[in-house]
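does this look right to u?? guanosine-5'-triphosphate version
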Amino acid sequence: MFAVVLVGGFGTRLRPLTNTVPKPMLPIGNVPMVVRLAARLAAGGVTDIVLALGFQPDAFRAAFPGDSLTHGDTTVHLHYAVKPEPRDTAGAIKFAADAVGIDGTFVVANGDIVTGLAIDDLIRAHREGGREATIHLTPVDDPSSFGVVELDDAQLVQRFVEKPAPGETSSNLINAGTYVMEASVLDRIAADVPVSVERVTFPDLVAAGDLVGYPTNDSWIDTGRPEFYLEANLAYAESERAIVESELAATSRISQVIADRATIGENAVVSRSVLLPGAVIEKNARVENSLVWGRVSSGASIIDAVIGQDGVVPPGDYRGLRLPDPTR
Ligand code: GTP
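got this back:
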């Protein structure tokens, strides 16, 4: 079974971290999120993954130089489909699927979703539903900022309601970013122009009565925003891989920290934070609820900050700081 994994987006909401690495290569619990996803796909029966690349393709090739990817005791074959011009999600699916000649049932996964969904269950639901495509759905407490999906009693998708006003829909199910499709879906996608699977292809399938919804209560996080990327990492804070190859001064105080090759100086205090490879927290600095890849100077205190690879926080107190400034 093939899976097309969408990893070619710009990841603008996670800048400046994504200035130097594409979002799906960022770690979750010190393992690149695309590696965790690949292992989950393999556990569900996927044998071949096509990485649908656009932005920063070389980072993937450098990380996975062979034609396979291994994590723990799972291995999958890797294929690369590079389309430098953004084609949006459906355009990227079509380009990648055509590049490897997919002609049967296949899986599609957004590269930035962290979930406990069992892929084999989704594939089974697709086969039982007997339609062109099946979409994984997840419930949210407040659907007002999402595209909400309404199902009928037979689990067929009836309509998508974009950012519903209170009372507009009784559904709280949203698109969870993993799908199973028949190759016939590819014929519905125009070639060589940007097409959105969410805004164009799925509504087409709904009109044809050919899209099944598969809601589950599995853990689910879209890591696209800093607070959600942090949350996905903190799930690993108690694991044995939480802090790897790092130097922590004996007088530093840390709680709920994920760190890889980081340095934490004397009397520094770090809580609820991710320290990416090479991060330096100098002595007496304070870091809370933050993502740090650069350096936090002695005498600096940051809360809710995102510090990219080249960012250096000068002494002072900051909330919501982003360095280097992602808008420049
Ligand atoms: P933002 O810029 O912060 O919205 O992030 P993003 O670019 O990753 O967009 P979004 O989170 O909506 O994308 C969902 C998934 O689709 C991610 O895994 C992206 O990498 C991927 N994606 C989005 N657009 C494209 C595209 O044009 N080509 C490819 N190959 N993948 C895409």
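The CA atoms of residues 305 and 320 lie 5 Å apart. idk if thats expected tbh
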